[in-house]
Write a structure and sequence with these properties.
Strand content: 5-15%
CATH topology of one domain: Glycerol-3-phosphate (1)-acyltransferase
CATH architecture of one domain: 3-Layer(aba) Sandwich
Organism: Marinobacter persicus
CATH class of one domain: Alpha Beta
Oligomer: single chain
Subcellular location: Cell membrane
Catalytic activity: sn-glycerol 3-phosphate + an acyl-CoA = a 1-acyl-sn-glycero-3-phosphate + CoA
GO molecular function, one term: glycerol-3-phosphate O-acyltransferase activity
Number of strands: 23
Membrane topology: Peripheral membrane protein
Length: 823
């Protein structure tokens, strides 16, 4: 018997070596840590269908990863004879795949029998999924049906051809093991029912994994486009447009067809594979690595739901990077909503084949286009495609999260209301760059330079930068948001109502706004803190953007410790190493300068880098918002009562929350503030005094320097608020409209930026003033009369008086003098 097994293993080893002369694999989950295997328990790997090639690949990957062997007998006296099995055996001849009801293999039955006979011995059952090429099926494509690893089971000849064509693009996924005893324990006296339960769990697992990796079946693009024009909603829009514009219906129908053709993606697996190779080369050339965190969230959501990826938008690279990360981690790239400006010659067709569908910037005045686009999105969601769009609309030029634009979210919610059989899950994604490629052009735009229109020539100019290093990139997946749960919370009776195609319920805008805020907050809660952001935050907190090297290193270590002492969210990631490593890294990137000095080198920001670094500081500003707000209250006061600190901070919090998308609920913020006070006392940033008073450290101490610099992280934001309050008080109640107040505030902020040398471009950002004024109206601080003039009461006067706690005398006087000159 041993001689037979030895010869058999030798033959299989020979076949494996022959197979891997051609086959190349990408593998995920093949480590003891990822699988969390217990070395004291036997391990069995399970593949779905019997296949010699699949077994050989499994054995090879197990050997490579140093996992318990897939072709050896298990150790121990009471252990299964084999450490792998197939769930189902193939039925059919040489040229047939499986055509009948699945039949369990003998090995599977033996494993169940072993578990029932040896209840004291548990077995870790590890499902392993294998894909020969990850190309989703395209209907009416005989070549793809023959040569793709799809949802059907391939016959032997077809499998040989698949390996021949796709063997160099093979994907293997090891998944979390099942406990055999946990599965079969309730059926100790019934082997048949125990077998059915284990088979059902494994079958469900394989189906969910296959769906996440391959995605749903793709319809032929031409069929999809023609189907859109035949939907009832588009037919009615064609009739309405023809009647209103006095055009022949046939002509309007052709226009609708052109709209659908302009919009629809044409995802090509060949293009995706070529792009994957090209992007691997590109990322290795310009980046020092891509860190991916918490991708299990996306993997789990993709198994049962239509996934909507909602990343922040920092760069045009975002489109490519997220699709690349998903594909490399065994998930089907999403269909991506792209602006029509990217549908350029050469580039547009490539993006379309990579999954991009194109949309016009505005189609409010074109009901026919709007209907076609809505129906296209509805097709995406009901068929279970994953979709990606940016809730910010455009790229952030300041490094902050922009106010969400609700259009795409509203389309998603309306589609789900029409047909909610397929769950929709939003997966927030934070993409963080240590050095954004468009950084210099952003500076120009913030200084008033006209935005450059995208073109092939512009991309060619960008390509010249490829010799530069842009540091590392982080792709962090945030906590998912299930749309049905949001609707249950916001409008519990939504399932009982009917929703025609063009129906927009009155409660929809409120739900969409809530959803938009939740998405933005969860993107920010998945932020990746990097050395560039920490260095920028510390240096920009100084008056002259320069600091002694040793002091700067200590400061970064202390602020990182502050983030660890009270973590903002479990999805936030911090950099490895310490302050000295981060400074050396930042210096190597050319973002800071060193000025040698006998008493100790000075690290400084100079020239355009001083403004550029505000971008990277703004990436993480929200993490320090609350401790910085508390510290700012001690700018001009030695001590305050603890309840006064909590009150003042809680009054300012709703405005900071709206601007920075902080995830703490406003109704429980005093508890969070109280916790932060305790943390700051423990860190030496504040001092506990008698009579429930909180004091700042003594002047001239290192602790006081830390408090003062920490306060500056948020003071410019508070100064902006007080500019608005100052203008309101000088003009008086009922004298200005919201638009006039916004304009006056922007001009004053721009003037102060010049007078005081403020480098933050967002200091005079009109949209931030607009948001603050809108929030004061929302919170009842301001009210607009019948003429649109803003009125306020005594409460605003008290809030303005509290400015003395935060603003320096110099800036208070500047605001007062300028507002008096313009009153």
């Amino acid at each position: 018997m041993r001689l037979y097994q030895g010869i058999r293993r030798l033959i299989l080893s020979f076949f494996r070596k022959i197979l891997f002369l051609w086959v190349r694999t990408d593998v995920s989950g093949n480590s003891l840590e990822a699988l969390d295997l217990n070395p004291e328990k036997p391990v069995c790997y399970v593949l779905q269908y019997r296949s010699l090639s699949a077994r050989l690949v499994l054995e090879q990957e197990v050997i490579r990863a140093g996992l318990p062997g897939a072709h050896h007998q298990q150790p121990g006296e009471q252990a299964p004879e084999r450490s792998f099995f197939f769930l189902y055996k193939r039925i059919g001849g040489l040229f047939q795949g499986r055509r009948h009801k699945p039949v369990a293999t003998g090995e599977f039955s033996e494993l169940v029998r072993f578990g029932l006979e040896h209840p004291q011995t548990d077995v870790q059952v590890v499902p392993v999924s294998l894909f020969w090429g990850r190309s989703p099926d395209k209907e009416k494509s005989l070549v793809k049906l023959l040569l793709s690893d799809t949802w059907s089971v391939a016959g032997r000849l077809q499998k040989f051809l698949i390996i021949l064509v796709h063997g160099r693009n093979t994907y293997v996924q090891f998944d979390t093991p099942l406990s055999l005893q946990d599965v079969i324990s309730e059926y100790r006296d019934n082997e048949a029912r125990a077998s059915r339960k284990l088979a059902r769990l494994l079958r469900t697992h394989f189906r969910r994994t296959r769906r996440a990796v391959l995605g749903p079946d793709l319809s032929h693009r031409r069929t999809l486009v023609e189907g859109l024009v035949r939907t009832q909603a588009v037919k009615e829009a064609i009739e309405t447009t023809a009647r209103e514009q006095n055009l022949p219906p046939r002509k309007v129908r052709m226009k609708a067809y052109k709209y659908a053709d302009e919009i629809a993606a044409s995802m090509s697996v060949v293009t995706i594979r070529v792009m994957e190779r090209l992007l691997s080369w590109l990322w290795n050339r310009i980046y020092k690595g891509i860190d991916v965190n918490n991708i299990e969230v996306a993997r789990e959501a993709a198994q049962d739901s239509a996934v909507v990826y909602v990343p922040c938008h920092r760069s045009h690279i975002d489109y490519l990077l997220l699709s690349y990360v998903l594909y490399r981690n065994g998930l089907m790239p999403p269909h991506i909503a792209a602006g029509i400006n990217l549908n350029m010659p050469i580039v547009g067709p490539i993006l379309r084949r990579g999954g991009a569908f194109f949309m016009r910037r505005s189609f409010r005045d074109n009901p026919l286009y709007a209907t076609v686009f809505n129906e296209y999105m509805h097709q995406m969601f009901t068929r279970g495609y994953s979709v990606e769009y940016f809730v910010e609309g455009g790229r952030s030029r300041t490094g902050r999260m922009l106010q969400p634009r609700p259009g795409m979210l509203a389309m998603t919610v309306r589609s789900f209301l029409r047909d909610h059989r397929k769950p929709i899950v939003f997966v927030p994604v934070y993409i963080g760059y240590e050095k954004v490629m468009e950084g210099r052009s952003y500076l120009g735009e913030l200084r008033g330079k006209k935005k450059q229109k995208e073109s092939v020539l512009g991309l060619a100019k960008t390509a010249r930068k490829l010799g530069n290093s842009f540091g590392k990139v982080s792709v962090n997946f945030g906590d998912p948001i299930a749309l049905d749960q949001v609707l249950d919370q916001q409008h519990p009776l939504w399932r009982e109502e009917t929703y025609p195609e063009d129906y927009r319920p009155d409660w929809l805008p409120g739900v969409v706004d809530h959803l938009a805020e939740s998405v933005a907050c969860r993107i920010n809660a998945a932020v990746a803190v990097n050395p560039i952001g920490l260095t920028a935050t510390a240096l920009l907190g100084t008056e002259r953007m320069a600091m002694d090297e040793g002091q700067l290193i200590r400061l970064m270590d202390q602020y990182a410790a502050l983030l660890r002492a009270y973590p903002y969210a479990g999805t936030v990631t911090l950099p490895d190493g310490a302050g000295r490593d981060w400074l050396a890294y930042c210096e190597n990137m050319g973002l800071v300068v060193r000025q040698p000095q006998k008493l100790g080198d000075i690290i400084a920001l100079e020239g355009s880098n001083a403004i550029l670094m505000t971008y990277y500081r703004n990436n993480i500003q929200h993490l320090f918002a609350l401790p910085a707000l508390i510290a700012s209250l001690f700018e001009n006061e030695d001590s305050l009562r603890r309840d006064k600190v909590a009150f003042l901070a809680s009054v300012a919090y709703p405005y900071l929350q709206s601007e920075l998308f902080l995830h703490y609920p406003a109704d429980g913020i005093e508890t969070v503030i109280d916790h932060w006070i305790d943390v700051m006392i423990a860190q030496g940033l504040l001092v506990q005094l008698d009579n429930d008073r909180i004091g700042r450290p003594d002047e001239g101490t290192d602790a006081m320097l830390r408090v003062r610099i920490l306060a500056r992280f948020i003071i410019q934001t508070l100064e902006r608020y007080h500019i608005v309050l100052g203008i309101l008080r000088k003009y008086g109640s009922g004298k200005l409209t919201a638009v006039e107040l916004e304009e006056q505030s922007t001009l004053l902020a721009e003037r102060m930026s010049i007078l005081f040398g403020l480098n933050a471009p967002e200091f005079f950002d009109k949209t931030l003033f607009r948001n603050f004024i809108a929030n004061m109206q929302k919170n009842g601080v301001l009210e607009a009369d019948q003429n649109g003039l803003l009125c306020y009461g005594e409460g605003l006067q008290q809030v303005a008086e509290d400015a003395r706690l935060v603003l320096s005398v110099e800036k208070r006087q500047a605001i007062q003098q300028i507002t008096m000159m313009n009153a």
